[in-house]
Amino acid sequence: MLNTTPQWYVGANASGGSESINYYISLSHIDQTDLIMNYGGFYRTNAQINVDANITKKLKVGASFNGRIEERDHPGVPGGDDQWQALFAIYRNLPFQRPFANDNPNYPARTQQTETNFGMLSYEKSGHVNDKWRVMQLNFNAEYEIMPGLKAEGKFGYYFAHHWLDNHEYTYKLYGYDEATDTYPVVHEMNNPYREREINNVEEFNTQFQLNYNKQFAEKHNVNAFLVAESYLRETPRLWMRDAPASNALTLMRFPTLLELADEGKRAEARLGYAGRLNYNYDEKYLFEFSARYDGSWKFKPEERWGFFPSASVGWRISQENFWQNSVINKYMNEFKLRVSYGLTGSDGVSDYSAFDYMPGYNYGNGGATIDGKYVVGTQPRGLPNTTLSWMKAKTLNAGFEFQMFNGRLTGQFDYFRRLMDGLSARRNDVLIPSETGFELPYENLNSSLTTGVDGALTWRDKVRVLGEDLHYKVGGNFTFARMYDWYRYNPQFNHSWGEYRNSILERYAYLNWGYRVVGQFQNWEEIANYPVDIDGQGNRTMRPGDFIYADLNGDKRINGYDERPIGYREGETPYLNFAFNLSVEWKGIDIAVDFTGAAFASYYLNSEAREPFHDGGNNPQYYLENQWRLSDPTDANSALIPGKYPTVLDGNRNHSNYWRNDFWLLNVNYLKLKNLEIGYTLPTKWTKKAGLEKVRFYSLMQNLFSFDNLSDVEIDPEITDGTGVHYPTMRTINVGVNLTF
Prior knowledge:
Layout: E1 7-17, E2 21-33, E3 41-54, E4 59-74, H1 82-92, H2 123-126, E5 127-147, E6 150-169, E7 172-175, E8 186-190, E9 194-217, E10 221-235, E11 238-243, E12 258-263, E13 269-282, E14 286-297, E15 306-317, H3 322-325, E16 333-347, E17 362-371, E18 374-381, E19 392-405, E20 410-426, E21 444-466, E22 469-486, H4 497-503, E23 508-509, E24 513-515, E25 518-521, H5 525-530, E26 548-550, E27 565-568, E28 577-587, E29 590-605, H6 622-626, E30 630-631, E31 641-642, E32 666-682, H7 685-688, E33 695-703, E34 707-709, E35 733-741
Antiparallel strand pairs: 1-2, 2-3, 3-4, 4-5, 5-6, 6-9, 7-8, 9-10, 9-11, 10-13, 11-12, 13-14, 14-15, 15-16, 16-19, 17-18, 19-20, 20-21, 21-22, 22-23, 22-28, 24-27, 25-26, 28-29, 29-32, 30-31, 32-33, 32-34, 33-35
């Protein structure tokens, strides 16, 4: 791994126009070298063009183009994900195993896992992967004023992306070294090359036609409404093939050596929708809104294809009332608004369901058999058609308020929200089908989930006089706290009260993290011999000083599943509490912007390589080995023990009670990270104009500089979710640049 890698970015843009037409053009390129040594990198070029024109006083048209070419390049390492394999090698390359026979770089050696041998992780030895996307987005829009207050608007969007993946994983030989003859005999060969190519396109068509009406009546009645019809069509044809070339030097694929070919067709998706919204306010004090959508999805059968989703909201600007305006409170709080909304929205992203599952039929290409000397490709029944599953529906309540104080210097908002998601998929458990049929019951919209939470934001803007110049500053913060519940469950069944307590997900916090509670570590052999609770289920025969003591919560003098309790939160997803703080300052051409982000109520579980001793014959993290219970003299079994944070690392000990799921290995994460820091200086105009420049700004943008967290002991970034630690590291980026405006 490299400590630092170069990244460079260059961009230019131009804008201009007249009363009738305006344009904007930009072009940029970014180049980022991989943190893994000699492992390629990431490259992207972007282009943007916008044009808006007033054809007549009533007709406006516009068009935009956005395109990018992005490419990833790295060695074609045999095995799974190539980036992951290179990081995994850190755990797999043991200190006493050399990557090359006799340290000769021309002869890679055989180690316990060839795919992670550092000597093989290169373009020359492993192969080559090139992954490239070419993407473009075209948008056209037109707006026509039919009459005062009434406008018609049409939009058309076309998106096209072309993906080209070339992966060639070479055959190879591994060598030993014969010191007597100074030769390198072959000790292993891999003669099964892997050559794949994937070509797939993404093509999308979006159309929208909209009528907008905006009118004021009798000075105090304000009406705003729109009607819209929109369509969406997406096609993602994909062609994939695998070859076994006769030589590593052959880059083209040929039919005689072709092993697999998959043509997945267009895989079309289509949606159609109609929507409308009506806004009314009286004197900018009483606010009402009603909206509705009528959407159809290609996924469901025609009778279940359409869904109607209405919503409504009301607001009251109390600060516009006379009693507020004439009170002393108006001197401090200039704006205060209450608002409540309730609505129904739909989603066709139902789990356990694929498009056209409502149709009977067969899946072609499942197995096969030889009949009359010829191989016949097999088919498989699709199962019972799903004719009942349709839209998931979210019923959302939101209530909150907004305010401004001290002439707008302090602004803020606070909201409570509650979302009940109905129609989650599940199978009935009170209808039985004989297993001999080979079918299972189809999924239905039976279950629900509930999410509740609060969020808020505060911002203070002001200026002060410093050395004869105004210093403008802004300080702000925001937070969101949300918790999900598993809500209604279809016909829950339990054998006993413990089963209900342990396994029920009926109206209970979702994703509870269960495990044992560690209450200490054995300090010596005498404590183990006299301990009254059976920790390991074997009379404590396997326990050693430093091993974990679990809480016997049910008092039966033995540790088993009945002693498990909730010990943490959801892993690998958005934390329940997220917050941010930001600060910006501008003074005499100097500008500073700081963004802190943080989170709490999330869990990180140390797993596999990060927890188990010598997992699959690999290494352990340094922090673990340096702080374990160990003998003061490793050659003397009777020498004094040195206490540590971690249990003694013993080879072949991964199933020990120390590694049962517990709150020592499950870390409940809290952190505050300096996410962005930007410092800039704009040269005085009197200097830049002499050089023919309108503006010159020097800046440095820094990201992920440091964090305050409770994961520093295990050397894991708090935003990484992979429990093994085998994860591409969060990059600390420091950019230095200059902006020139002509």
